[in-house]
Design goal:
The protein is an alpha/beta fold. The chain has a domain at 105-330: Rossmann fold (3-Layer(aba) Sandwich), CATH 3.40.50. It is built from 11 helices and 9 strands. Helix 11 links the parallel strand 8 (294-300) and strand 9 (322-327). The longest helix is centred in the middle third of the chain and has 20 residues, at 131-150. It is elongated. Mean pLDDT is 80; it is low at 71-97.
Length: 346
């Protein structure tokens, strides 16, 4: 049996200490009451007693603010304005053609060989609906919608390009031009801008002559004089022209701005399609991208790599609207098979 422990009786003083708070105990141990508030003077010195601020002399020159850098403008922002040019250190201005008449394409229509179109798998404008035509109708609707939404001259210029050769950019440019020419109120000018290996005229069965590069090289030449009228309603073609070896230099000149503005100024229903060289094989594609408001970058299924597409997009970055166009695809996850409704492709 445990013996009960003996506990001393508490006094009133000890009970009071146990009821004290932690701060009260600390005050008793360290004597915080001895610390008083900081002394405050009865009156505060007047403002005249303070040190006066340094006044700037009236005649002291103030530093001029640094001139702000003007905002950068896209190439398309200059369309319709006098274009400043600089040659050999001397600047000049190309006069605007605000009141210039709309350029009309005339000349005897040349026949496009329909059998040649069918042999190459191109759209036959007289053949009715087909799988290829239905696919191109989707593409042209997006192109037309973008041109209408933007409402500028450059938006009606479409660059068709690919990273490498043999990926189908000429095939797509031809079919898009034929499909656009089928619109009731639209005319299409297809420009062969693949100066190293022009093929538009031969694929249509037309005779090649002087063309785009000849107009750029000769300031006195009129571009409409070299446009070929075809027997496909609404379709016109401008050949590549003579080889110069200075394609990029001519395309980067102010002459190119003047020629393209002449083709689109005052013609809101006219679309221009460039069949350009491959972006990673020749430099003209990057120069043409500065003049185009839309670009269709053609990638061939199971052939074009992602790295090539990324490099091509970087080179064409002057164009504000770049769309990817997949070519030669034989598989559709959704089972889409345009044209079969009309009896084609069955």
């Amino acid at each position: 049996m445990n013996e009960p422990s003996k506990k001393a009786p508490q006094t009133r003083e000890s009970e009071a200490k146990e009821r004290e708070s932690l701060f009260e105990r600390a005050n008793g141990a360290f004597g915080f009451d001895k610390l008083g508030p900081a002394s405050v003077p009865d009156t505060i010195a007047s403002d005249t007693a303070q040190k006066p601020l340094r006044q700037r002399p009236v005649d002291e020159a103030r530093p001029a603010p640094a001139p702000s850098e003007p905002p950068r403008r896209r190439a398309s922002d200059f369309i319709g304005e006098p274009a400043p040019a600089s040659f050999n250190g001397m600047s000049q201005t190309v006069a605007p053609e605000a009141n210039a008449p709309v350029v009309r394409f005339s000349g005897e229509p040349q026949e496009v060989v329909r059998s040649l179109l069918r042999e190459q798998g191109l759209i036959d404008p007289d053949g009715g609906a087909s799988m290829l035509l239905e696919e191109m109708r989707i593409i042209k609707r997006q192109v037309l919608a973008a041109a209408k939404a933007e409402g500028t001259q450059s938006a009606r210029r479409i660059l068709v390009c690919s990273p490498h050769p043999n990926e189908g950019k000429t095939f797509c440019a031809l079919n898009l031009a034929i499909a656009l020419a089928g619109e009731r109120d639209t005319e299409v000018l297809l420009i062969d801008a693949d100066f190293g290996k022009p093929s538009i005229m031969s694929k249509l069965g037309l005779e090649a002559g002087k063309g785009f590069m000849d107009v750029l090289a000769d300031p006195s030449a009129r571009v409409e004089d070299h446009v070929v009228t075809t027997d496909i309603p609404g379709l016109f073609v401008l050949p590549a022209g003579s080889r110069t070896g200075r394609d990029s230099e001519y395309l980067s000149s102010e002459r190119t701005w003047a020629v393209l503005n002449r083709l689109t100024r005052g013609a809101p229903r006219r679309m221009i399609i460039f069949d350009s060289p491959p972006a990673l094989a020749a430099t003209p594609a990057a120069e043409l991208a500065k003049h185009a408001g839309q670009a269709l970058l053609v990638a061939r299924a199971d052939m074009t790599g992602q790295a090539a597409l990324e490099d091509a997009v970087d080179l064409l970055s002057a164009c504000p609207d770049i769309k990817l166009l997949l070519n030669d695809a034989t598989f559709s996850p959704s089972g889409r098979n345009f044209g079969s409704y009309y009896g084609y492709g069955e």
